[in-house]
Amino acid sequence: MSISSRNNNKREERRKISFALAGTTSTYILALTLLSSIFVFISPTQMTTTAFAQEEENNTTAGETTITTTSDTSTTTTPSSASPSLELELSPQPVWQERVTTTGVTRINETHSIVEFVGNGTLTIPDIEETIKMTNNGTAIISPVPGSAGTVSAYGREYVFSEDGDDTTAITFYEIVQYDPATLQGKGLAMAVFDTNATGSLTQFDGMMVVGTHEEQPNAEGITTTTTITLWEWEAGIGNTCVVPPTLDFLLRLPPLQEESSMNTTTKTATSELPLPTNPP
Length: 281
Known about the structure:
The chain has 281 residues and is of the alpha+beta class. Among the domains are: 43-79, no CATH class; 96-240, Porin. It is 27% helix and 37% strand. Strands 3-4-5-6-7-8-9-10 form an eight-stranded antiparallel β-barrel. Strands 1-2 form a two-stranded antiparallel sheet.
């Protein structure tokens, strides 16, 4: 009996130990399962929601930068340093490409000179990209820019002829060009507007405003033999195809000038109302 009791007691202890181990293992497995569930179902959802929120914020809010942390899902928005667009809408391709050669210079005074030139190149009609060969000639008045050494300004008129000479137009242009004193290379900006009375195929350019570059590359002797002009259409331009051009007074919003008779009457009236000088004692 005593031996049997001892055996029974040992069996009971083994069962308790087995149950304890089993319980510990079950608890460990359950804990791992819970952690796994938390990792699988909470973390990816949190990361996906954060990424989606960040992408939506970037797509819908311009000029801001969103910083999102996944630890506490807090979001901080700060202004970005991206530069604003220039909003200068130009044609995809140049409409004017020309090589110009100076044929003469006449000095007007110490600061101004008249330059005569000829050129040739191509005009490209926007949208349809049809190319027209052209020959040109014109004059410009050039002068140094005050306060900017090595910089000159120019404005002038240039007459444009199609290759066969049947179609004509003209432009009025303005330029500012800077020169490298060491190499005498010149680079500048140019803008021009076409006349509104072109003929033939060149009517496509009536009233068009163009902007672009002026480049001069001197030869070994430091003399510029050819200047390259490249111009693009300014697509945001208003255009000027009106039949009757506005007067200068209208453009400058100046008050109308008084007629001479009215001015004389006003002067006489004002003079008559002045007090007469008194005789000295």
